[in-house]
Amino acid sequence: MEPPILEACKKGKKPTNFYGFHTFAEPGCPISLHGPFRDNIRQFLQECAELEEYNVEGMPVWCTFLVLEKRGIVLPLYTVEENVKISAKPFCDPCRCAGWSHHLVSKRKYHVIIPMDDEWNKPLNEGVLDLQHHLLHGLIHCNGFGHLLIINGIEGGSNYLCGREIMDLWDRLCSLLHTRQITVEDLSKKHKMDLRLLNGVAYGHSWFGRWGYQFFQGSFGVKEHNYSRAIEILSSLELDQVINDCCQGNGCRDIGQIIRHYREMSETNLTTIRDLFRFMLTLKSRDPPGRNSTTIATFTYSSKILPKIALWDRPVGKERSMKCRKFANVAANMDSRWPVRRLQNVAEVIVEALKEKRAANKAGSCGMTRQEARDAARLHIGDTGLIDHVLKAMNNVIVGNYIVRRAVNRSTRVLEYSIQDLKGGTRVDPIMIPKPMMFGKSVYFDVTYLYKNVLQCCYSESNFVKLAVQTIMDSKHFVKDWPFRDEADDLLRFICQVMPSSIDLKTELTRDFPPAEYIVVPLHATVGDLKLAVQSAMRDTYCVMEQLLVTDIVELEGVDDEEVLFGLVESGAQLRVRGSGLDWGTNLRYEGGADTWTVRCKCGALDDDGERMVSCDICEIWQHTRCSGIEDPEVVPRLFVCDTCCTSLAPPRMQSSYNFEHFPASALPRLSELDMGILY
């Protein structure tokens, strides 16, 4: 594949500057910035980017050209400025889910985007802010708070950039621009493993932790000390005990063989599962052992874990020669929270879609990509998780009178599903035993095997370990903080907080105080200059403060406006500012939106955490569906009454029966009420 070359270069519109991808935004390269983010981003765009001749939905676009030095490839780093007053989405969902609903709506958002490889030669199109396949998409409000929304490396479809390289660039850029806090919702996976769980056990932090991102907010009432305790519990599992527990629990001797194999390879003693995972992950980039190595061994799978791994290591090209299984038998042996009847129903819907595709395209391709099959099934089934679960198992399976196969289309090189009529001579086996596998050759296969069969299966009956795993999985929001820096130069820097009036406190300010702002003034500035600087910065940053008139600085009351600040107040001090003209009547007040709501869930959550919620039709208080006994695949009932309102309406004896018999086990008091005690 030829390296992409920007159309601008082909047409003779040569960019003014090119910057090395791996050195861009290092200290002093290409510029040094000393102000707050709202000023730095403007200087950055002026000096390091070029304004494009088009806009996207009325938003101006700048482009910075970066060069992958070793490959000689030029790629675009776009910056899109979104004005919230004309935006279709003025509020910020990531702020709401990260606990920043109380932040005031900033007037501008800056979207930093690196498109997918095959889009480097194309201009940005409408809807670019909603796409999920960018290599990088970061959003930073003009007050310096922001969110890392998307990062995709090699596994995400890039041919040139890995996730680590993209994260390095993003981190350098945030440091250069003096961002204040950046959040990320960690849903990263590798080889179908959740990295926040794998890295948490191996290193004590998420994958983003290597760049300084720390626990910020958990879902379902999980607090930082619960998260830390869960990490400690899992990482300290002793390998000898794991071997004993797993062998007794499901007869999986292969786990013991894998552990002993890597113990023999290690020069240091591997005692805990953290030691093992960390050692294995250090081996992942090394060459596999040679063909003559005597350390490679084979193993077979126990029957209890067979359905989970039966499809793992099959070469796609050989699948057509494999035996077929009835999907009903496959579904019965799948580790699934859905009943077999629902799994079979989804399989039948997919087969009907494949039949329609075959009938409509008799002369062309009769296959459907995973996304096409998924979209077709969604027309009849609303639960995408259920659809994905079934699609994973649909390979060489029999549904009705058809065989469903999965193979790579040679012309498009895309994995497709297709159907064939079931012939009388087709050999059908209820379960196909996979060939013996080799461990030691693929470290990632071995890690994945241990991840699934130790962390997710072996201790499935242990509330202690199961709760720790669930706690880490419910800890998705992480944050990196760039602390305030008062540099040794000829500038004065202050942290200024606008104080609302007593009337505003009672009637308008219904949420926590928003964060203070960084203000920079020259060394010779006066008190009056500082007031004007604060006023200008607040007007430039927040919609609610467009008409702000600063009248007083609490710490400098009684001091004339002509007094020079130097020697009067120390640089880096926190100052409280009073004024008038705050427009609390505008809808653009809080990033969480104009609506007010109350969250009070039995798990302990008091704010929106991004998980699915339901509102009580009596008290109108929101709580998690999961904590209320409504499973994810289930539709929220039209009429929902919370436990508290049920208690007030129903006699105590009836309520007791309702709590423990009507609801499934998942609806009983959640982590913070019963089980969280072991994580303190």
Automatic annotation (TrEMBL):
Residue ranges occupied by any Zinc finger PHD-type domain in the UniProt entry: 600-646
Organism superkingdom: Eukaryota
Record-level Gene Ontology MF annotations: zinc ion binding
UniProt-listed InterPro entries: MS1-like_ubiquitin, WHD_PTC1, Zinc_finger_PHD-type_CS, Znf_FYVE_PHD, Znf_MS1-like, Znf_PHD, Znf_PHD-finger, Znf_RING/FYVE/PHD
Gene3D superfamilies: Zinc/RING finger domain, C3HC4 (zinc finger)
SUPFAM superfamilies per record: FYVE/PHD zinc finger
Keywords: Metal-binding, Transcription, Transcription regulation, Zinc, Zinc-finger
Name by which UniProt lists this protein: PHD finger protein MALE MEIOCYTE DEATH 1
